[in-house]
Amino acid sequence: MAETAREDGPDFICIGLQKAGTQWLYDQLQFHPDFWMTPIKELNFFFPQFQNGSAVLAAQRFHANPKKIKKVNLRRLKDGVRPLEKPDLVFFEIVYDMINKTRDMDDYARLFSPKGQLLSGDVTPRFSVLDGETVQALADRFPRTKVILMLRDPVERAWSHWRMVISRGQIPAEAEQDAPSLRRFFRRPFNRSLSYPTEIAKRWRDAFGEDRFHFFFLDEVTSDPASVRERFISLLGGDPSKSSFLDPGYNRKAKPFVSSRTEPVQRLMRHLFEAERKACAETFGGPAREWLNAPY
Predict the structure, then answer these.
(1) What's the CA gap between 162 and 191, in Å, rounded?
(2) 85 Cβ partners below 8 Å, 6+ apart?
(3) To bridge 207 with a disulfide, which of 62, 87, 135, 203 should be the other Cys (CB 3.0-4.6 Å)?
(4) Which residues have C-beta within 8 Å of that of residue 22, sequence separation ≥ 6?
(5) Can you point out the beta strands (E) in the chain?
(6) Sign of CA dihedral 202, 207, 209, 211
(7) What is the rounded CA–CA span in Å between residue 98 and residue 69?
(8) What is the pLDDT of residues 157-170, one digit of tens each?
(9) What is the Cα–Cα distance from 202 to 25, expressed in whole angstroms?
(10) Using 50, 70 and 90 to split pLDDT, how confident is the model at 4?
């Protein structure tokens, strides 16, 4: 008797946090034989960014010239990304069909149809800021989908976010230690909403329920990546004994450089995140309790 396809849509959604190990998770799963991961991380399906994002741009290129796959695959392997195969080209055709069209939950489900019998999911940190109505609609449309939240000390996550936008030239480098500039940055609604994991957790847990909402700590990925990888893959329904062809400790975004913070910046960080650190310790326990005594 032929096997039936898995339930449509994603088997899991990783909603972030941004700068909390989501690239590590995507890399561990994209090479695992039990998973088909969309060839583009961070689809941003429910945001305007989808229309001019990486998935749409790639879909347009492949639609115009399908023979580019060999050249693209050489570059992907060099960059540590798995090569494209037939299901990925099907994915890009599905994306191409959605360009400049009104999209709904069924369209979102279609993005994962190339998975066949494999597990699949969406790793989009921006989903952490989705409004409650959309989160509930996701929970209702995909009743078996699990939600994964990656956690990091709010102070260190915010600082990494700040330094990322500086490294991209979006903010002048000389503003790094300027407390007023930093304050303005985290007053922006989007940046603020990324920075308070207890609020994010409540919104998603309320919609998906305790049994479908799960969280992991970047602290544990750093200290014992093999154990976290095993727990992740087991939770999602895969076989952790199968190789991902990557060392569990591989993290392409890990940066050894640590930038110190001036006293005015430390005071601002304390003002912004002291209460949230305490709330995280109470809500999540585990490594979050250690954040209370970490420097600002």
Answers:
(1) 9
(2) none
(3) 135
(4) 14, 16, 41, 123, 125, 150
(5) 12-14, 121-123, 146-151, 213-217
(6) negative
(7) 21
(8) 999 999 999 999 99
(9) 22
(10) very low
276 and 196 Cβ atoms separated by less than 8 Å:
yes
CA distances from 129 to 23, 171, 187, 281, 291 (A): 18, 22, 15, 21, 23
Interior/surface letters 181-210, b for 16+ CB within 10 angstroms, e for the rest: bbeebbeeeebeebbbbbebbebbbebbee
Max Cα-Cα span within the chain = 68
Residue type, 282: E
Give the separation between CA 148 and CA 24, rounded to whole angstroms: 13
Give the DSSP H or E segment for 246.
none
Closest to 142 (Cα-Cα) out of 52, 286, 8: 8
For residue 63, give every residue at least 6 positions away whose Cβ sits within 8 Å of its Cβ, in sequence order, or none: 92, 93, 96
Crossing angle (nearest 10°) for helices 54-64 and 86-98: 110
User: Which tens digit of pLDDT belongs to each residue from 237-254?
Assistant: 999 999 888 889 888 766
Question: Could you tell me if 30 and 131 are in contact, meaning their C-beta atoms sit under 8 angstroms apart?
Answer: no
Burial (0-12, 13-18, 19+ Cβ within 10 Å), 175? middle
Structure tokens at 41: 């991380």
Q: Distance (Å, rounded) from C-alpha 116 to C-alpha 60? A: 24
| Strands laid side by side in the 12-14 sheet | 121-123, 12-14, 146-151, 213-217
